[in-house]
Write a structure and sequence with these properties.
The protein has helices at about 1-40, 40-45, 55-70, 75-90, 100-110, 115-130, 135-140, 140-155, 160-170, 185-190, and strands spanning about 180, 195-200, 215-220, 240-245, 260-265, 285, 305, 325-330, 345-350. It is α/β, with parallel strands linked by helices. The longest helix has about 40 residues, at about 1-40.
Length: about 350
């Protein structure tokens, strides 16, 4: 009986030792995971600055539990930690689904990982734009919406992607201020009524921008002759201050744009000639490079930066009344003989 009791005690002691070591290993492993997350999180590092303090581990564990309760993401604590670990590794390898995409975005945004912005861009481009998925789960996320707006500014987004976004979030079209409309339709553009800066390249589907009453900057790049915007297409836009029409072959008259300050009508095939700018008064920057149809800009008394280089039609008589030009490019324009009357000239390219 005593022998049996001794055997039991030995086995029990070994079990306790094994359990203690195993628990310690698990605790150590969990702490390593928390430290990995901590090292990648700007938010956590701002809260807990000293990793060498005596109670750092306890504070870190307590902080994770507190954040878990605050976010209330309807997932287990174990999954909460796993998602955070996923984000600290290669986020491009994460298998996103309708069930987890929102949680990942919330966690990335809350913990402010160094990859958070890259993750948002990845989600917007690879999933929302290319596959037209997940935005129904993310349209309330301000950071995702801002990322989408940024993409509209700097990238040629196809019409299907924009229509998908508009279908889910109708309000976002009113927030677009800067838009590259090179790949979208007239119908889509008509919904973006608050645009102030618009870029269009080789898009013959867009024929007018008259509904954009807040438009202040318009850039149209022509590479094909059958481009869609003629005079009528901009006839009701009166607030444009910056207009860029290099090699334009459709628009011939812009005299109604009385607020114009910056104008590009360069190119030897440009349809805008002397008559098309004769009533403009407030232009400060003019690019008429290689435009043979422009021969006189003396009425533009506020001009400061001028490019009349190459085969531009402006000659000496075409600039003799100007006084305030600071920069003049007349390279390879042999019709310009003297610039002595330009007393404020700082840079002259001949």
């Amino acid at each position: 009986m005593f022998k049996t009791y001794c055997v039991f005690i030995i086995h029990y002691t070994l079990y306790i030792i094994h359990y203690t070591l195993h628990s310690h290993t698990i605790l150590k492993h969990n702490m390593q995971n928390l430290l990995k997350i901590y090292q990648k999180s700007i938010y956590l590092q701002n809260l807990l600055t000293d990793v060498n303090q005596n109670n750092f581990a306890e504070n870190l564990i307590e902080l994770f539990k507190k954040i878990f309760d605050i976010l209330n993401l309807d997932i287990s604590y174990e999954l909460f930690i796993q998602y955070l670990l996923d984000l600290t590794h290669n986020y491009k390898n994460i298998f996103f689904t309708n069930q987890n995409i929102y949680q990942y975005i919330v966690l990335a945004n809350y913990f402010q990982f160094d990859i958070t912005n890259d993750l948002f861009n990845h989600i917007v481009v690879e999933y929302i734009f290319k596959q037209n998925i997940f935005y129904n789960k993310l349209f309330t996320c301000n950071e995702i919406n801002q990322c989408i707006l940024n993409k509209f500014e700097k990238n040629k987004i196809n019409d299907n992607a924009i229509q998908y976004v508009f279908k889910i979030n109708k309000n976002i079209c009113n927030e677009i201020k800067i838009l590259d409309a090179s790949y979208i339709t007239q119908n889509t553009l008509n919904k973006c009524k608050n645009v102030t800066e618009l870029y269009i390249e080789c898009n013959d589907d867009i024929g007018q921008v008259n509904n954009l009453q807040q438009l202040q900057k318009l850039c149209i790049i022509n590479k094909i002759k059958d481009f869609g915007i003629y005079n009528y297409g901009i006839s009701q836009t009166f607030n444009i201050k910056k207009l860029y029409l290099p090699n334009n072959t459709k628009i011939t008259n812009i005299n109604h744009l009385q607020l114009l300050e910056d104008l590009d009508i360069s190119g030897n095939i440009n349809s805008i000639g002397q008559h098309g700018v004769s009533q403009l008064l407030f232009i400060k920057i003019l690019n008429a490079q290689d435009n043979p149809s422009i021969n006189n800009i003396n009425h533009l008394q506020l001009l400061e930066y001028v490019d009349i280089s190459l085969n531009c039609g402006i000659d000496q008589n075409g600039i003799f009344k100007l006084k305030f030009i600071r920069y003049l490019n007349a390279k390879r324009n042999n019709k310009i003989a003297s610039v002595e009357h330009l007393q404020f000239l700082e840079n002259y390219v001949k």
